[in-house]
Write a structure and sequence with these properties.
By secondary structure, this protein is mainly α. Among the domains are: 84 residues, Orthogonal Bundle (Arc Repressor Mutant, subunit A), CATH 1.10.10.10; 88 residues, Arc Repressor Mutant, subunit A (Orthogonal Bundle), CATH 1.10.10.10. Helix content is 55%, strand content 10%. The chain has 12 helices and 5 strands. Strands 3-5-4 form a 3-stranded antiparallel sheet. Strands 1-2 form a two-stranded antiparallel sheet. Helix 5 packs across helix 6 and helix 8 crosses helix 10. The chain starts with a helix and ends in a 17-residue tail after the last helix.
Length: 254
């Protein structure tokens, strides 16, 4: 009887010892889980702020140089100000400072305001070196006919092909196609009376000519012939109304 009563408490104690570890196991948290959420929010919050704050924090002049190195056409001050998140006035001042600095240092390139935007250009003094490298001895210039046609469009725009042909005295359809392909002229609507397509010069034309606008085109007066020469040529082209022996006037065909 005594052995049975002694064994029972021992069994009860063993049961308590076996159940005891289960209580702290439920109360102790896992040590690996808390660090993960602490690290991730910090990284996520830093990423969105890097891009806009980084652009605005950049030095303005080097940032402008970097952007202008990769453009393929003049860029306006407004566009540069938007990209670099700076006031337009600050961008304009920095561009002019850079342009003046390159000129003082006599660099092989300069920064110009052409066709309403800014872009790097090689300096004319080093044109021979650039042509030697780019053209490799080949001439890529416009023909005389193309130059004449382009001049008519520039000074008479918007103008139709037939009008250009009338001014030049020859058909200019092929030359106009060449100018269109090279991006020097573009369509500018249609003539109300005849419906003929009108053409005008492009910003690329201004860029290649080094002009800010069409108002910088040279005046035609110094290149026009004298009035006496024009009158003489006109008289030579006038139809003849001489009367022959039969009494009928003779006219020349047009």
């Amino acid at each position: 009887m005594s052995e049975e009563s002694y064994a029972a408490p021992e069994a009860t104690g063993e049961a308590e010892r076996e159940a005891a570890p289960e209580t702290p196991a439920r109360a102790v948290p896992h040590p690996a889980s808390p660090p993960a959420p602490e690290t991730v929010p910090g990284a996520d919050s830093a990423a969105p702020g890097d891009d806009p704050h980084g652009v605005a924090a950049l030095d303005l002049r080097p940032a402008l140089e970097a952007v202008l190195m990769v453009v393929d056409e003049p860029v306006t001050e407004e566009h540069l100000a938007k990209v670099l998140e700076r006031p337009r006035r600050a961008v304009a001042d920095a561009l002019r400072e850079l342009s003046d600095e390159y000129a003082r240092q006599r660099r092989g390139f300069d920064l110009r305001l052409i066709a309403g935007g800014w872009r790097f250009y090689t300096r004319p003094a080093y044109a021979a070196a650039v042509e030697r490298f780019v053209l490799d001895g080949q001439q890529a210039r416009l023909t005389q006919a193309a130059l004449e046609t382009l001049a008519v469009v520039a000074y008479r725009q918007p103008v139709s092909r037939s009008r250009v042909s009338a001014v030049r005295g020859v058909n200019c359809d092929g030359v106009m196609r060449t100018l269109l392909q090279r991006g020097l002229v573009e369509e500018a609507g249609a003539e109300p009376e005849s419906g003929a397509i009108l053409y005008r010069t492009t910003n690329y034309f201004l860029e290649r000519m080094g002009l800010r606008g069409l108002d910088e085109l040279p005046e035609l007066a110094p290149f026009l012939p004298e009035a006496d020469a024009v009158e003489a040529d006109t008289q030579e082209g006038m139809p003849s109304f001489d009367v022959d022996d039969s009494g009928d006037p003779q006219t020349t065909d047009h």
